[in-house]
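Dear support,

I submitted the protein below through the web form. The confirmation email said the job was done, but the results page showed an empty box. After a refresh the structure appeared. I'm attaching both so you can tell me whether what I see now is the final result or a partial one.
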Amino acid sequence: MKRIFFFLLFSGAFITNVISQNDSYLKLWYKQPAKQWVEALPVGNGRLGAMIYGDPVNEIIQLNENTVWAGQPYRNENPDAKEALPEVRKLIFEGKYKEAQDLVNKTFITKISHGMPYQTVGNLKLHFNGTSDYSDYYRELDIDKAVVSCSFKAGGVNYASSIYSSFPDQVMVYRIKSDKPGALNFYSTMDRPGGAKVSTSGNNEITLTGLTGDFDKVKGNALKFTAVVRVLTSGGSVSSNDSSLVVKNANDATIYISIGTNFKNYKDISGDADKKAGDYLKAAIVKNYDQMLNDHIKDYQKYFRRVNLDLGITDAVKNPTDVRLDKFATGNDPQFVALYFQFGRYLLISSSRPGGQPANLQGIWNDQLTPSWDSKYTVNINTEMNYWPSEVTNLSDMNEPLMQMVRELAEAGRQTARDMYGANGWVLHHNTDIWRMTGPIDGAFWGQWPMGGAWLSQHLFDKYDFNGDKEFLKSAYPVVKEASVFFLDFLVEEPEHKWLVVAPSNSPENAPSVRPEYAVTAGTTMDNQLVFDLFTKTIKAAKILGTDTELTTKLEAAVKRLPPMQTGSWGQLQEWMQDLDNPKDNHRHVSHLYGLYPSNQISPYRTPELFSAARTSLEARGDASTGWSMGWKVNFWARLLDGDHAYKLITDQLTPSIVPNSRRQRGGTYPNLFDAHPPFQIDGNFGCTSGIAELFLQSQDGAVHLLPALPAVWKTGSVKGLKARGGFTVDVNWNNGEIASAVIKSELGDNLRIRSYVPLKGKGLKPAKGANTNEYYQVPQVAAPLIHSEVKKPELKSVYEYDVKTKKGQTIEIQAL
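What the results page shows now:
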């Protein structure tokens, strides 16, 4: 096995560091620099992000800061909607969908029709002298340390660089070293698409400043950003001209990158961008480099190392990451799935930290001014998918920015509810941005979906289900209560069954094949499921907190009048209130299966007919799709307890997106393991990470289910540190495809029900008597009967259920009998 030797200078002394291709199994590594953005490697601290190309001659460090968005505070609700609403509903109920959609486009959508884009700060470029003829190249991202490194040899000199984005110090730090004194020569420049001001100063600094511009009829030139770069060297000299810094004959160089904006919150951009960037930089440069690096790694690892996944090692780990991706579908590389799973956790820690903004459609990494879909928050699934791994993979801290955004959206959405619909509470449609717009955008076909608040509210409930923190529930309750209040006002009786339905709305981004151009309708299955979850969980929260008995009475009455989930003529779960599903429809959105995942309304044990109908629908949709959709389907198949089909979807996800010898791209994965819609969307990474976790542990159905959907290919392995609802931390080991042992720690002290496919033994473990899978969560069921009930019941493995009463902090050790 080839090894690359080079010398690194640490704390003034040379030491030998040997990098081999498999010295760690938690590394993405390559034998060549990145030639395009989707080959570059990401670093981030939640606020500051960078993509590193690793070019020995012309290095590019593409920069992002998570508050750099176009426009400025604005609103986009259309008050004309309120007057038109009765007529729109009348047209829908008369079956005049074209006329209804045309009227929505005319009276609901505003001139601000797209929202604001997330934008790049720009690029730091390092141009090296004497390195064009390089060899022994190696580039890696160590996701255990959150550091990108590069090494190569040129002109008889060994060079090594590293870069990380520090959360404790709020700067990015790049260091490059050579093993011969005075061998380091380069100059640095900065630029930005669309232009920005670049200047230098006498204290070895280069600064890029700019304003984000107008967009979509919203005036810009208001959001200011400042990026300051300071270069410190050992030996040699640093000089400057108007737009670059020049390093000559240095032994090593350390580059500090600090970025600030004038953003304070979604309503206030009165901050001082220069001061913010300057203050972070001043505090960082006086610190010891080794201490900064250690602080960064320690801070990062306290989150990352909570979970360990071992699926086994084969010789495939000796290959570079791009080669492993290319060969995964036809090879034997179980560790690659573990790497991809942990890479998803790395991306979440790196793009979403408490106190910052939530991860957007590209996390925090974007090299454009107008990226695809503006890299906003698409809340008809994509933003939610970003946070699916946060609880189960033990990263609850990372969803705090989402919780804060939901609070802000509730505040902004009150006016939208009042002005557009004459309703109390708050509403959000299918998209938002940093300015927390809540009105519909993009046209009626996509945008007339007032369910964003209902779905995002589920994340607040989920957080409580996992951590049991009543103080958090108390703080979140007003937000979810007002979301429920909106729907109490907004639901309308449909004429045929007298059900209460959402109208107008759509089944996200899809339409029945009988009217493919007209999506606006009433009572879609996903809407019904979302309102059901919102109402029932608000009832539960109110009862836990001992409040709002009058409201809960109203919600309980409304729940009984919601449309039931229905099976259609070919045994499918209907997507619409009418039986309109086309078995040849392979649309990327599978919205009507929300009740299967992420919700728990569809269960193999409580609702077997619906469980079978959901499977029929999913089979009809097919496997091939965009990257994020395949990630969602991994979760679906895990919930369907079919680990082998889930593994097939993981294989589809881990397929190269860039088709060889072609300019064509497909859904899958880029060389840097970013998800491909295409183009890049980070939700696919997060969705697949969540789906992998669901194979080993599920807790949505009244029990902690161990290895519910283990694929047959993973005969032996272990996972440690996953979280289950009820405040349980779970470790599981398995042999020959069955549980060997498990350790469950109760963080809260609560009754624990364990579900397994094999009999278990353990102290305090007793077989469950009269097991009721509704018992733990008190999940009410829709009373109305299925319209089509001649559906075959699924064949399920027999399960063993055990109960144990736990105390706070108690650890339960379990073995297979």
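Response: this is the final, complete result; the empty box was a page-load delay. Confidence is low (pLDDT under 50) at residues 1-23, 771-791.
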